[in-house]
Amino acid sequence: MSDPRVTGQTRYSRDVEIEGMLHARILRSPHPHARVLRVDASAVPDDVVVLVPGDVRELNRYGCQIKDQTVLALDKARYAGDPVAAVAAPSVERAGEVLDLIEVDYEELPAVFDAVEAAEEGAPLIHEEIAISDNDAAYFGLRPQPGTNVCHRFRIRHGDVRKGFEEADVVVEETYTTAGAQHAPMEPHAALARWSDGRLEVWTGSQTPFNTRMDLAGLFGIPEEQVRIVCPPMGGSFGAKTFVRLEAIAACLARKAGRPVKLVLERDEEWLTLNRHPSTIRVRLGAKRDGTLVAKQVECWADTGAYADCGPGVAQKMGFASPGPYRIPNVWVDSRAVYTNLPPNGAYRGYGQMQCTWASERTMDLLAERLGMDPLELRLKNIIRNGDRYCTGEVMHDVHFEELLRKAADAVGWREGRRGKGLCVMLKGMQTPSRASIAVEHDGEGNYTIYCATAEMGQGAKRAIRLMAADLLGAEVERISFPDPDTDAVPYDTRTTSSRSTHMMGRALEKAVEDLKKNGRRGFGEVADEGGLDPDTGQGVASSHWHQGAAAAEVEVDEETGKFRVKRLHAPVYAGRVVNRPGAELQNEGSMIMGLGTALFESISFSEGQVSNANLSDYCLPAADDLPDVFTHELVEREGAEVHGLGETALPPVPPALGNALHSLGINVTDLPMTAEAVLDALDRRESSRCRREPPGREGAGRKFCVLAFGISAGVLLAGLILRSRRDAFGRARVQRRILR
């Protein structure tokens, strides 16, 4: 096996070393909201460099979409884990030892931990002022709400939703929640910074080299050309390593020390750096008796934590994707990114799509039940097809939702019986507007070098782009090299996010190769996709390139314990044209596995704002024994199609497919993850509902049965609580409550 990831030859961000470098550690606030009254580092020995608020007070604020961050907490710590000081020492161990020598006095302040509560009038303000960033990541019209914790509000106003609901024969309404989740990449965040003649150089695992350069230049008030960002491969990211994370602290320590400084997070610090947005989504959906959708209203609250990061963008995508891939004449969406006193939340594989797909697609099954209609037929009746207009006003093209739905249904034997089976279909927008540039050089001896800012994080981007280049150049792939992104050497790219790289860079590469053939030595290519939405109406072009996927699942439930087993899971994804089949298949499988984790057990636990499961023993990740008995996917292609992004598409449909499979058994779970306790609660509601729906002539018998059932249930609950076991041998949260009959 020659793959450098297997042989150990790949050098990741945390492997970068420079002679004479120091090692850094961070001192963090123990309080979720507190004034920082005093930071005393006088007891720290002279061989250790200390960074305190006074060292960074004159620096500028930064933030990829909202300028709300400072290098250290200056006047207030806004979450439990907010950095208040940092040290750099000759070794990591030495740096950790001296943290306890720094004394900090705090004055605790009222805190808020729920996004819906934080958005209400009178909630404790996390930030008194909100300034929009000039970073390229703030590419859309942001709408912070002054005097509130809402740092962005996005709306869709399409048709007349009030009139639509008046015309509806059936209306369903439900509220859904999704817990926060940790990215848990194998490699933690790592950055190394040094200054040379007033110029800052940073080696960091980052998906966003040019955005990081912009923010660091703005922080120090220097031209962007005075900042160099080099991005070695990452040992996983899933959105965690976007925008400025450790780089600002490492750069400030290096400036004060006059030496290079390396900062690598401990595993528990990952939970204090960036997580997935917890969300609350309320959906109201109306239809005619024949299943024709007439109106949909959605309210979203995305908990962005103590700092906005890219939360406004997540809320916007959550909002414009929440109507789903359906023809609905009347749509009303309000989506908000809301500050709370929890650790920051940002980009996570799916970028808000999973949360809104969970809510939207679960509601479709609620509606199907009320209509007495097959959930597949309800979807097919309303699905978007080529030439239809989405609720944002754009005309949809190269649409394959019906094909994907039918493939998903066939894979689980939908026509053979729907009991225990569930479906989901989804659309996901790509970063719009978007720009990508690439350069190709020829050495005259048959060797080529690609200069490109696409970052490698295990997704196989370098391999895919080299394969495309080999095809265009008529060369062997081994003749094509692809050095790590370096802002001093590569042309501009928006960033390696949104499953956009192969699609955008592939098109730019075609132009670069054409230019190379004309010029002989060097070719340059660039593509730009225009678009964008009015944030007050949601009209415009949400996505120049829609990602399309579906999933179907079959489950088996142990109604005594609440545990359920996934028997079959299938996810068809539209790929357009596949470039690297093994890589594409791995992308699908990885997305599906992360979807299973979200559906079954992944959840960050908090106690008064403190993360209580910040380790890989108490935080549950899916393992091989969690996979379904039948675990399949397919890449749907079309001759002559463009390359489509695949990095995230198979994740969002998995949780709602499982939730809908449970719903087919009368088990309605609205919160993710779908724990055994939640299933048991849903079973209790199902039985209570059955008691209330008595057949004519058996009213008395039904009441007697329900009284008896209540008495038995009370005793059973007590016995179940006594017999409950919360852990299995792998440390996963398991409920073993047995109901005696």
Give the arrangement of secondary structure elements.
Layout: H1 4-7, E1 22-28, E2 34-40, E3 49-51, H2 53-56, E4 76-77, E5 83-89, H3 92-98, E6 103-108, H4 115-118, E7 150-158, H5 161-167, E8 170-178, E9 190-196, E10 199-204, H6 209-220, E11 227-230, H7 247-257, E12 261-264, E13 275-276, E14 279-287, E15 293-305, H8 311-321, E16 331-339, E17 345-346, H9 353-371, H10 375-382, H11 401-411, E18 421-428, E19 434-442, E20 448-451, H12 461-473, E21 480-481, H13 501-519, E22 522-529, E23 532-533, E24 540-541, E25 547-557, E26 564-576, H14 581-600, E27 606-607, E28 610-611, E29 630-637, H15 654-663, E30 671-672, H16 676-692, H17 699-723
Parallel strand pairs: 1-12, 8-30, 10-11, 13-17, 15-16, 20-21, 26-29
Antiparallel strand pairs: 1-5, 2-4, 2-6, 3-5, 7-16, 8-14, 9-10, 9-12, 14-15, 18-25, 19-20, 19-22, 23-24, 25-26, 27-28
Helix pairs in contact: 8-9, 9-15, 12-13, 14-15
Structure explained in plain terms:
The chain has 741 residues and is an alpha+beta fold. The protein is 27% helix and 24% strand. The chain has a 7-stranded mixed beta sheet. It has a 6-stranded mixed beta sheet with strand order 7-16-15-14-8-30, sandwiched between helices. The chain has a 4-stranded mixed beta sheet with strand order 18-25-26-29, sandwiched between helices. The chain is globular, with a radius of gyration of 26 Å. The chain starts with a helix and ends in an 18-residue tail after the last helix. 54% of the residues are buried.
